[in-house]
């Protein structure tokens, strides 16, 4: 996972992914759970994909984005609760479970996805790291990035679909950060430019 890139973001992502992978190895579990939190545009999705691509444990990890669980633009807390109830708690008890994808266009639940307790889980999204989820996670990650960079990346990625909701979403993030202090629950902090 060595990068020859001179891109500061790519280098920081490489370092961050390597730190998380080292933490996964240190857990010495066959089905580790990694929870990745951070504000919109921080780099959580890119980081989680890099970790999944270089997963150091036998079997592929189950990569689940909270973006697939939030029930709409006011659903940060509800999405985090669904992840806890439908994914993290059953996985911790060794139970097969399912979660339903949220269809953003139709604004309804869509198809179900299975989660097997035999494989590791990478859960990423704002709201993912709470006191309740921290108890069930082997590796807890907070991704930090300056607001201007985050906003640029988020709007570049999601464009006009996100633009009118930026402030509305940021208020929910602020509430989560104030209430749950995910930065303090993290075992690994990844700082991206």
Rg, alpha carbons: 16 Å
| Order of helical and strand elements | HEHEHEEEHEHHHE
Number of strands: 7
User: What quaternary form is this?
Assistant: single chain
The helix count comes to 7
By CATH, the topology is: Rossmann fold
Taking the sheet with the most strands, its summary is: 5 strands, parallel
Q: What topology, given as strand order, has the largest sheet?
A: 2-5-1-6-7
Number of domains: 1
Description:
With 193 residues, this protein is of the alpha/beta class. It has one domain (8-17, 43-191): Rossmann fold. Helices cover 42% and strands 20% of the residues. It is built from seven helices and seven strands, in the order H-E-H-E-H-E-E-E-H-E-H-H-H-E. A five-stranded parallel beta sheet has the order 2-5-1-6-7. A two-stranded antiparallel ribbon has the order 3-4. Helix 1 (8-27) packs across helix 2 (44-53). The longest helix is centred in the N-terminal third of the chain and has 20 residues, at 8-27. The radius of gyration is 16 Å and the shape is globular. The model has no long low-confidence stretch (mean pLDDT 96).
TL;DR of this structure?
By secondary structure, this protein is α/β, with parallel strands linked by helices. The protein has helices at residues 8-27, 44-53, 76-92, 131-134, 147-158, 166-180, 182-185, and strands at residues 33-38, 62-65, 97-103, 108-115, 121-124, 139-144, 188-191.
């Amino acid at each position: 996972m060595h990068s020859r890139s001179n891109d500061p973001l790519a280098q920081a992502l490489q370092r961050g992914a390597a730190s998380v992978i080292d933490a996964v190895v240190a857990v010495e579990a066959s089905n580790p759970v990694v929870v990745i939190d951070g504000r919109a545009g921080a780099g959580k999705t890119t980081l989680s994909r890099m970790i999944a691509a270089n997963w150091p444990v036998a079997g592929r990890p189950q990569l689940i984005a909270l973006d697939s669980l939030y029930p709409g633009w006011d659903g940060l807390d509800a999405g985090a609760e669904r992840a806890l109830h439908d994914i993290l708690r059953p996985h911790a008890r060794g139970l097969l479970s399912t979660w339903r994808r949220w269809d953003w266009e139709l604004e309804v639940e869509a198809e179900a996805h299975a989660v097997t307790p035999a494989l590791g889980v990478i859960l990423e999204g704002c709201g993912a790291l709470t006191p309740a989820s921290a108890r069930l996670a082997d590796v807890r990650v907070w991704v930090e990035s300056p607001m201007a960079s985050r906003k640029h990346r988020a709007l570049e990625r999601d464009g006009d679909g996100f633009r009118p909701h930026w402030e509305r979403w940021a208020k929910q993030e602020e509430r989560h950060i104030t209430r749950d202090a995910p930065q303090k629950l993290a075992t690994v902090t990844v700082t991206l430019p």
